[in-house]
Amino acid sequence: MKKLLLLAIIGLGILSCTTQKSSKMTDSPQEWKHNTNIYEVNVRQYTKEGTFRAFEKEMPRLKEMGVKTLWFMPVTPISQKVKKGSMGSQYAAHDYVSINPEFGTMDDFKHMVDEAHKMGFKVIIDWVANHTGWDHVWTVSHPDYYLHDEDGKFHIASGMDDIIELDYKNPAMRTAMIEAMKFWVRETNIDGFRCDLASWVEVDFWEQARPEVEKIKPLFFIGEFDELDNPEYGKVFDASYSWTWMHKTEDYYKKDLPLSDLKDLLMKYSALGENSMRAWFTTNHDENTWNGTEYEKYGVVAKPLAVFSATWNGIPLLYSGQELPNMKRLEFFEKDVINWNGNNKMAPFYKTLLNLKSSNSALRGGDTNVTTYLLRTSADDRILAYVRKNGKDEVLVVLNMSKDPVNFTLNDENVSGSFKNVFDQTKRDFSGDKSFEMKVGDYAVFEK
After folding, report:
1. For residue 101, what are the contacts with CB-CB under 8 A and spacing of at least 6?
2. What pLDDT, in 10s, does the model give residues 410-439?
3. Would you state the torsion angle of the CA atoms of residues 184, 123, 115, 349, taken in this order, to the nearest 10 degrees?
4. With 50 as the cut, is the pLDDT of residue 327 above it?
5. Which pLDDT belongs to residue 296?
6. For residues 171 and 142, is the Cβ–Cβ distance under 8 A?
7. Which phi and psi (to 5°) does residue 360 adopt?
8. Nearest to 127 by CA among 90, 84, 164, 80
9. What is the DSSP letter of 146?
10. What are the strands of the beta sheet with 393-400, ordered from one edge?
11. How far is the C-alpha of 206 from the C-alpha of 26, rounded, in Å?
12. How far is the C-alpha of 42 from the C-alpha of 44, rounded, in Å?
């Protein structure tokens, strides 16, 4: 790790290199995870009906767009006591082993999962282990499963008064939680879990739960935590969130931070190694609702950051409606359907990126055979350029991260030879001319 950082500091630009093979606690045959992408499905807001059956009709176009893994926000019933808005939060569960009737029936969900599998998708569901709603069935049958305040009342989760926290010092509660997770794998054949607020739950629970649940089948686990802040969780999860990057890139755009701040942060992420991956994104259900659309947050660098998310080391994570693009903040506790207009202008953009991610070995996430080089340019304060290499496969990415047009050259020996632009299919030989003229918001992706 120290050697990696030193190389980056002295300017060689190597941000990832061969490291020790993964020591993940479960050695599951999950080859697909290295080339996958994740599309977050907000069933409530996806269609007028807001049901699984209605969403099924959308799956063919998502397959055409190159989506590989479908992540469904919580599918469990919503607590009605102390609920927010007229419909409540999907993250305030009433029962861990039932279906939210708002979305349909258990048979509807099983049918959708079966159809998704037939089309080649992997399916993961949101798992909310830290807390439940106020009228979860356990509050009556097992009140001892919860944390309590000194006055005996259930302990309210930090900053969210519609949910109460579970007690992970209780072995019986842990067993019940694991059995609930097993239920969804056994009964519906899902392929994994997106674990909400994973770092709010003791890491030893996940260490206990994952091998138990995987006795049924190998699974994919992505946790909502940043490994820079919670490195011990990276030993359990296949992938984690890049929250620090997300916040830093927003500050970069809005506060005119130096681009070197972002490059320094990438060095820190790369120093984590390949035992787990990062999920890169420009929006999700929380960000869209509470902090603004990706275009509100990132302005002219929204598309360059989307390209980055699909081509840097890790997994791209998309949210419902980005293919439109969705330009509104979706309500969280009310019905607020995405304004589909039949013209998903961003779909070709994402199709190109997602297919490249899936097919080119140089873009495999968490693969020790892939090396990533941060490239020197004549405009290092405005241009983010890198090349990823895996044997004969190479992908070159050049992003204008400034608010102005930039003319520059690549001043780096790590790029040479003939490449093809994946968006317009034109060919270019970088053995000689390495000059670029980029407009505001421009990006370029080439493969050898």
Report:
1. 77
2. 999 999 999 999 999 999 999 989 999 999
3. 160
4. yes
5. 98
6. no
7. -100, 120
8. 90
9. B
10. 14-16, 371-374, 383-390, 393-400, 443-447, 418-421, 427-429
11. 12
12. 6
Does the model's pTM come out above 0.90?
Answer: yes
Distance CA 222, CA 278 (A): 9
Q: How far apart are CA 366 and CA 314, in angstroms?
A: 6
Adjacent-strand bridge partners of 280 = 316
- Domain 33-370, CATH among 2.70.70.10, 3.20.20.80, 3.60.21.10, 3.40.50.1580: 3.20.20.80
Model confidence over 174-211: pLDDT tens digits?
A: 999 999 999 999 999 999 999 999 999 999 999 999 99
CB 440 within 8 A of CB 405: yes
Q: How far apart are CA 336 and CA 44, in angstroms?
A: 8
pLDDT in tens, 268-284: 999 999 999 999 999 99
Return the exposure string of 16-38: e unless at least 16 CB atoms fall within 10 Å of the residue's CB, then b: bbeeeebebeeebebeebbbbbb
When computed from its CA atoms, the radius of gyration of the chain, rounded to whole angstroms, is 22
Query: What is the number of H-type helices and E-type strands within the chain?
Result: 14, 20
